[in-house]
Amino acid sequence: MPGLLEQVNLNGNGLGNVDDDSPTQPPELSVLIVGGGPTGLLSAYMLSKFGIKSLLIEKYPERLAAPKAHALCPRSLEICRQYGLDTNAMRKLGAPREDANRVNFVTNLSGEHIGLLPYERMDSGVLEHTPEMLHNIPQPAFEQFVAKELEHDPNVEIRKNVAYVTSHQIDDQVISTLEERSTKTRWQVRSRYVLACDGAKSQVRADLGIKSEGEDGYETMMTIHFKANLRPVVGERTGMLHWITDPACSGFIIAYDLEANHVLISNFDSKKHPADTWSQELARTTVAAAIGQESSCVPPTPNRGLGRVGDAAHSFPPTGGLGLNSGIADAHNLAYKIAAVHHGWATPSILQTYQDDRRQIALVNSAQSVKNGKKIFSFLKTLAKPFYF
Prior knowledge:
By secondary structure, the chain is an alpha+beta fold.
């Protein structure tokens, strides 16, 4: 989930190629957005609603298929609704409520059922406090939904397979160097602002020398995306999350679509199984142990990029569903402030309140995610130990 402001004051027009000696000025635009994930796309969408043009660059040629984040909280959906996104249509992209309203604790999917918890508040009583109930929507589906809204938006240009390289500031302008990854061609653009929405390993943040604060990873996790119909396996024990205590696959399955689409996030001993030794065979064995029986699943794909749920401003563990929602709130907070300066409603000093507004919330959410993770993995390890009488 993306994080936001690297305030960069820019102006410009055209594409200045840095691979030649041309004296032409780099092109001018209002906002350069680095990263085409949910925060980058929503930032472009919201800025457009204020009449602000942006160039969004994404280093990958195609959207990554692994589902990643999924829980859109009421506030995130309220923000989408406020800016005109059809949240009713959006809900059709996610798991039905009856399949996603529980958290199960099991030895494995075919094994002993230890207990269950409700998955947040998903009852009708929630609607007394908000028009938008929490809903589970796979991140790629959410991204595609927003991207579709931008396809014919004259205020937004999206360029894929383009990477951010570096930038420098001249007075109230930021000159950014970009690279077309397939040809290695580089060019420059000028903008008033640059939004760093390029994830936990943000190149913009690294380029500016901004270091992350907080704890290093306390667990090594393998993320495996696999296809299988698990409905016959779980039967009536449906749920959004299935926490598994078997030491061979300790972790949890996220059931984005019970009949087709899942992710297993499994806790691994990095000394016994270093990440560079992870393989299709290990992933298959781990999924089979988590399911607890032979299954007809499409070969799983192990993801070696740990910490997949994160953003350029705040990187959280995947225990709490707080990363994506924090990023959406970041984009919401910053978009109207940029618009206020752009249209002369406020002075540039209002941009400094972005950090005041969002930093403490990010710290609290990060701490809560870490706390959740430590508690749940400690609990799973305790359950996995044999009891002697």
